[in-house]
Design brief:
mainly beta; 8-stranded antiparallel barrel
Length: 175
């Protein structure tokens, strides 16, 4: 019967623990910054298509523009130009919403992908439309190169051509 030598296993185990510890230390070093903001955006383009299979089934492709106002505990893209490119597929104002946004301030720019829902309810006989979305950073330039993270956003239509978007989340710069 062969003698069991635990040394090779111990070396392998300690090596794994060491590498795992380095990975955790790297994640901890990438401190997340809490951010938030508000954007008043107006439609610059909008195309709505009536699908016709059921009453009120619409597909909409939109472009909106506005200015970000930082409201979080840390300043983020305050005064930046925001352009939103959106798509929705809804029945009587309720359904899916998705798209992209670009936030640009000087040489700094971030690109965002969002997905969520559009919901329309009647308040005193008037439709009130709200978008609830989850957003993630997909690219950054300037000081936001390698940005990671995201935020949640709520957008409420305040007129036929304008919406107010409030958002909050966090980011870090991947090294």
């Amino acid at each position: 019967m062969k003698n069991f030598n635990p040394r090779p296993w111990m070396v392998l185990l300690f090596g794994f623990v060491f590498i795992f510890g380095l990975c955790l230390a790297n994640l901890a070093a990438q401190e997340k910054t809490k951010i938030g903001g508000k954007v008043e955006a107006e439609y610059t383009k909008q195309e709505a298509l009536d699908i016709g299979d059921v009453e009120g089934h619409m597909m909409t492709l939109s472009q909106l523009a506005g200015i970000n106002k930082s409201t979080g505990e840390n300043m983020f893209m305050d005064g930046a130009d925001v352009t939103i490119y959106g798509f929705s597929d809804s029945i009587k104002g309720n359904g899916l919403a998705m798209g992209y946004a670009r936030t640009k301030l000087g040489d700094d720019c971030v690109f965002i992908e969002y997905k969520g829902e559009v919901k329309t309810t009647l308040v005193e006989g008037n439709p009130v439309t709200v978008f609830e979305t989850t957003c993630k950073f997909v690219k950054g330039m300037g000081k936001y190169e390698n940005i990671q993270g995201g935020y949640t956003a709520t957008a409420k239509m305040v007129s036929e051509t304008k919406m107010v978007i409030e958002w909050q989340g966090e980011y870090f710069i991947k090294e």
